[in-house]
Amino acid sequence: MTIPPQSAARAVTPFVADEAIARHRHSLADGRDLIYFDDPGTNLSPERSIDTRTPEARPETARMRQDPLTGEWVSIASNRQNRVFLPPAHLDPLAPSTPENPSEIPSNYDVAVFENKSPSFGPLLTDADAPLGLDDLASIGLERSRTSVGRCEVVCFSPEHEGSFASLSVTRARTVIEAWAERTHALSNLPGIEQVFPFENRGEAIGVTLRHPHGQIYSYPYVTPRTLRVIDSLERYGPTLFADILASEQASERVILQGEHWTAFVPFAARWPVEVHMLPNRQLPDFAATTLAERDELAVLYRRVLRGIDAIYSTPTPYIAAWHQAPVTAHRDGIRLMLQVTSPRRAEDKLKYLAGSEAAMGAWIGDVTPENAARTIRAAVDRADAEEA
Prior knowledge:
This protein has helices at 134-138, 170-188, 225-237, 241-250, 292-310, 356-361, 370-388; strands at 2-3, 15-16, 23-27, 33-37, 63-66, 73-76, 111-115, 145-147, 151-156, 195-202, 214-220, 255-258, 262-265, 274-280, 319-324, 338-343, 345-347, 350-351. It is an alpha+beta fold. The protein folds into two domains: 2-221, HIT family, subunit A, CATH 3.30.428; 227-388, HIT-like (HIT family, subunit A, 2-Layer Sandwich), CATH 3.30.428.10. A hairpin with a 5-residue loop joins strand 3 and strand 4. The two termini are 35 Å apart. Residues 1-9 have low confidence and may be disordered. This is Galactose-1-phosphate uridylyltransferase.
């Protein structure tokens, strides 16, 4: 089925849903949205339990402050200080609810998506001081503050207490990708949202506070600083920037995997000891624009990439898997959907720390040549494939 954009003014690409993946929409006790995505052929009943917890008032939405030296906005989300830290399995807030553990998800599930209770960007509850659009946010001044209006969602990949995207079956990986695509479409149509960002943080070395396999989706009221840098390069280079990058990488020795629809590679100027990018082989601004066939292949290739990264060493590799998407209303013909997986792990027992040059000046010094890194990751992907065969 084709779901048209909710608002023609947003001009978002129509979304084609996979009808084999059922959706069940519910509300949590405090009114937050919860959506179940069922694997094709799931054994789960379509009937789901209601959230029987006593409703609590939602915490005040965070405030963001502008840095006048850069024009960037910093969201001060103090409620996040109280979030759960590495709980035991029987108190996992992302596990299906039990009488002993009244969690965020009332029923058993395959994949579940819900609004974050203490988000970095959230609804305009009582404070009328919302951003007044991109022109307002682009102005520079002293002690400027706005409500961090946006939306943050948690994407639970599995009801299991531990794991990551790499530990999922191909079928479950495909269901997660379907959730990313549909939520990108829905969030892009919300008023005031300028960019949607799905990502997964994996490993305590990255700062993960829950071992449960999950990711998040942030919806920002502005175009992020990293994307603004990409827009600047696009305007200076020309509209073929992403196509030319892909052609250059496909002709190099840095390719990790290449399929009909996607190519994964170590970038020419990789910053991190482990860094893999993935691009679609055609222009796609975001997940919502993908076809079913593109999502099918991605479930296989992306999972292989992450399993290979885990196979580099004898223990799982910490990483950030970041899906960069075009802004909702601009540069959608030029900026291409792009995965960037980065890990600070530079040896079995060593991490790369961002010290003076990187952290203070943004001037990176690499520890490993990208070509050597690509050879290492390709070999690890082969080992992981062989172990699974």
